[in-house]
Structures are given as structure tokens and as C-alpha cells.
Specification:
An 8-stranded antiparallel beta sheet has the order 14-13-16-17-10-11-12-15. 16% of the residues lie in helices and 40% in strands.
């Protein structure tokens, strides 16, 4: 009898140890599973020398397209910004998303009803978009409003992915900037994404953007303050004006590191039209 009880106890003990080991292995594997990929960032620089046929007098920097694509929902979120200094006498009456590789013309996939918004793509259009075989163009009514003519065009390309959290001293950060987060809010339609990687060993913030900047001497700052409040500047982020994404590095004081990593900082963009801040976005860790 004692032998049976001892055997039974050992069996239960071994099962418990096995279950614990299995649970440990499952938890360990869960930790090793890579995080879901972030939304795919996209951009296009619209110029008239990308038109087919190419014009005799090409020009650059006419407009920009920035967007993010969610592969789970097939939703493309976009912002189109036109350079007012170029389009001062001619306006783009319609903005289209086309199927077509660079150097070719293709059918309209979507008419974008506003300068910013969302559209839902089919699986076939998703494949074209992510392969670089879609473009955006701005078209204007000509011949007394009888037909549309393309003024500018840009191939949509994928941008480097938002970094994912990695072990060690580097922390991935992101900020989605728009006019509604400014205190008080602005009427600006400009919007975009600024991604960053912060090194806790060197206190260096490396950043890159998917936002069209104002053409007139934009200033980009990193501030210390929680969402909904204004706070002091802790770093100026050097940037180039125009429609190309900008990138750079900035040093962060040790005293500001905690605020940066806890969601208590924000990035804003100042322009001539909005000297107190045109767009703003809270910086949050990924």
C-alpha cells in the first residue's frame, strides 16, 4: 500500500513539474514571439516630370503625399499637401490614386475626396501599392471644364519601417502630428508621422519624418509637457523645408530622459502662418 501511495505521489509530482515546465516554455516562447509589424509608412513626392508624357519644362516640389497602410484592415490613411507658392494661379481640382508602375499611365483606383482621409483597398490593390505600382496625381479642369488634365504626379513608395522595441539601450518612439493636438488647436490640414530611436547610453535621439514641411523656414521642436498642455523646449530638431522627409539627430539631457520615455514630451512644427505651432504630436514609446 505504501509503495502504491509513494508511486502515486511521484507520478503527481512529475506531472506537476512537467506542467510547470510546459507553462514556462509557453511563456518563454510568448516572450520570443516578434511583435506585430507596425503600419506601413508610405510617401510620394509629386512633380510634373513624372507625368507621362514628360513635359518640356519639368519642375519639382509641387506637392507631397504621406500615408500609412494597415494590412489588417486594408485602410490607407493619407495626407496630400500642395505647394501654394507653385499652385498660386492653377489649382488641382481632383486628386486620384492610380494603378500603374512609374513611367506608365494606369486607371484610377480612387478619387480622393479631400486632402486628407482614408480609403479601403482590395487585396489586389494592396499588392500593387506595396510593390510600388501605384501613384497619386493632381488634375485640373481644362477646356472650359470639359476634361481633366494631370498637373503633377508621384510614385508611392514604402518608407523605412517604424522601429520595434528591442532589448538593450535603444527605445523606439513615434509621434503622429496634426493640428488638433496643438494647444489651442489650429486649422492646419498638415499631418504626418515622426519616428525616432533613443539611445539611453548616449542620450542621442535619431529621428526621421513622414510629414510635408512648410516651404518657408519651418522650425521643429521637442517639448516637455503632457498631452493637452504646453511646455518648454528641450531640443530643436534640425529639418529641411519642403516636401521630402527629413531626418537628423539631437542630444537629450539626462534630466529630460524620463519625460521622453513616459509620454510626457511632444514634437511641434512652427511655420510662418502658425508661428506658435502649426501641428503637434505626443511622443510615445512603442
Amino acid at each position: 500500500m505504501l509503495q502504491k501511495l509513494t508511486s502515486g505521489f511521484l507520478l503527481l509530482l512529475s506531472l506537476g513539474i512537467t506542467a510547470a515546465c510546459d507553462q514556462f516554455d509557453i511563456d518563454d516562447l510568448r516572450k520570443k514571439v516578434p511583435p506585430s509589424p507596425p503600419e506601413i509608412s508610405l510617401s510620394a513626392r509629386l512633380t510634373n516630370d513624372q507625368l507621362v508624357p514628360r513635359p518640356l519644362f519639368p519642375s519639382s516640389g509641387l506637392a507631397s503625399f504621406t500615408g500609412t497602410y494597415d494590412q489588417q484592415t486594408n485602410v490607407l490613411t493619407y495626407v496630400v499637401a500642395f505647394n501654394s507658392s507653385v499652385f498660386n494661379s492653377v489649382t488641382a481640382d481632383e486628386v486620384h490614386l492610380h494603378r500603374g508602375a512609374p513611367g506608365t499611365n494606369g486607371p484610377i483606383a480612387f478619387t480622393l475626396p479631400a486632402r486628407n482621409g482614408t480609403v479601403t483597398l482590395s487585396e489586389a490593390d494592396e499588392a500593387l501599392l506595396l510593390a510600388g505600382n501605384m501613384y497619386v496625381d493632381g488634375e485640373s479642369l481644362v477646356d472650359a471644364g470639359q476634361r481633366l488634365a494631370a498637373l503633377t504626379r508621384g510614385a508611392i513608395i514604402r518608407q523605412p519601417s517604424t522601429p520595434v522595441p528591442v532589448p538593450g539601450p535603444q527605445v523606439a518612439l513615434t509621434a503622429q502630428v496634426n493640428g488638433s493636438q496643438v494647444v489651442p488647436p489650429t486649422s492646419s490640414a498638415r499631418a504626418g508621422i515622426i519616428n525616432a530611436l533613443y539611445d539611453k547610453d548616449t542620450n542621442v535621439l535619431t529621428y526621421w519624418s513622414l510629414i510635408s514641411l512648410p516651404s518657408s523656414s519651418p522650425v521643429v521642436h521637442l517639448h516637455r509637457a503632457a498631452p493637452g498642455t504646453n511646455g518648454p523646449i528641450i531640443a530643436t530638431l534640425p529639418s529641411n523645408s519642403g516636401f521630402l522627409p527629413f531626418e537628423g539627430k539631437a542630444s537629450i539631457l539626462e534630466a529630460d530622459e524620463a519625460a521622453l520615455l513616459s509620454g510626457d514630451t511632444y514634437i511641434d512644427v512652427h511655420s510662418a502662418e502658425f508661428p506658435n505651432g502649426e501641428v503637434r504630436g505626443a511622443v510615445v514609446p512603442l
